[in-house]
Write a structure and sequence with these properties.
By secondary structure, the protein is of the alpha/beta class. It folds into 2 domains: about 160 residues, Rossmann fold; about 100 residues, ProC C-terminal domain-like fold (Orthogonal Bundle). The protein contains 12 helices and 8 strands. The protein binds NADP nicotinamide-adenine-dinucleotide phosphate. NADP nicotinamide-adenine-dinucleotide phosphate (NAP) binds next to helix 1 and helix 4.
Length: about 260
């Protein structure tokens, strides 16, 4: 990505703000947002250029994030298609929109990249899977990796993996929050105050993920290592491992992946 690459956004909602936060030089950013109150909020918070004019972004930006809700894509495409050309990169973060569907909407000129981010992007700890259409170049993918890499981890994958990605990292924040809720509720049943139980559950989830990432330790030895024979963790793990927990998790992801397939039709 060159130092003068202008980064545009079609839609400046929650996910766009997550990406914006990771962009150091905000003077290179131009966002199109139709909600005037939201536009004002972002201008004041980040001193960034926000317009209500999609055409302006399509004419000025070299790399543009498509960050509206799926139901708004057709309207946006109909407004900008005529201005986009083969020197530009369009990066869609829209769930369920395939590269071929995007090509139908935005035309075959613009270089297309599809990303499945997750909500943790807003805490600068996102997980973004990236795949590229055949007309996108390696440098385009590198530019997107560079921008999103500043907001968390990235993985360049094939589009065939995107239903699984959507199920795992895209939808995953809700499942981990549900696990945290279950742990906290169980703590309350054991006599802890709700806010204390939540802190204990959340910090344990956060710290465990941090340790596993930093140490790179394989999971089974880690689990076995904390399960001292005859100890408390072993007593809990015995109950967990003999339950259908993994089966339920597998079915949860399967349901999300199936829904992702349906939405892409
Ligand atoms: N949230 C997640 O966890 C997550 C995860 C993975 C992928 N995604 C994808 O990320 C995309 C954005 O999600 P989000 O949660 O950031 O949505 P959002 O907060 O609703 O942001 C979309 C913004 O775009 C604006 N907009 C709509 N049509 C427009 C137009 N024609 N011109 C200019 N602005 C327009 C909306 O304004 P109005 O509110 O006035 O309509 C809204 O402010 C979605 O496609 C979603 O599938 C989200």
């Amino acid at each position: 990505m060159s130092n003068s690459t202008i980064i545009g956004f079609f839609g400046a909602g929650k996910m766009a703000e997550g990406i914006l936060c990771a962009i150091k030089d905000k003077s290179l950013v131009i966002m199109a947002e139709k909600n005037a109150e939201r536009a004002e909020e972002l201008k004041n918070k980040y001193q960034v250029t926000v317009t209500d004019n999609l055409k302006e972004v399509s004419q000025k930006a070299n790399l543009i994030f498509l960050s509206v809700k799926p139901q708004d894509v057709v309207t946006v495409a109909s407004e900008v298609k005529q201005y986009l050309n083969s020197t530009q990169i369009l990066v869609s973060i829209v769930a369920g929109k395939t590269l071929s569907g995007l090509k139908d909407e935005f035309g075959s000129d613009v270089r297309l990249i599809r990303v499945m981010p997750n909500l943790a992007l807003r805490a600068n700890a996102g997980m973004c899977a990236i795949c590229a259409a055949s007309n996108a170049e390696a440098v385009d993918v590198k530019a997107v990796e560079e921008i999103l890499g500043a907001a968390g981890a990235t993985a360049v994958l094939e589009e065939k993996d995107f239903d699984a990605v959507t199920a795992l990292s895209g939808s995953g924040p809700a499942y981990f929050a549900y696990m945290e809720e279950a742990m906290a509720e169980a703590g309350v049943k054991l006599g802890l105050k709700p806010d204390v139980a939540r802190l204990l559950a959340e910090q344990t989830m956060y710290g465990t993920a941090k340790f596993l990432r930093e140490s790179g330790m394989p999971l089974t030895p880690f689990i076995n290592g904390v399960c001292t024979k005859g100890g408390t963790t072993a007593a809990g793990m015995e109950k967990l491992a003999s339950s259908d927990f993994k089966d339920v998790v597998a079915k949860t992801l399967e349901a999300a992946a199936n829904r992702s397939k349906e939405l892409a039709k």
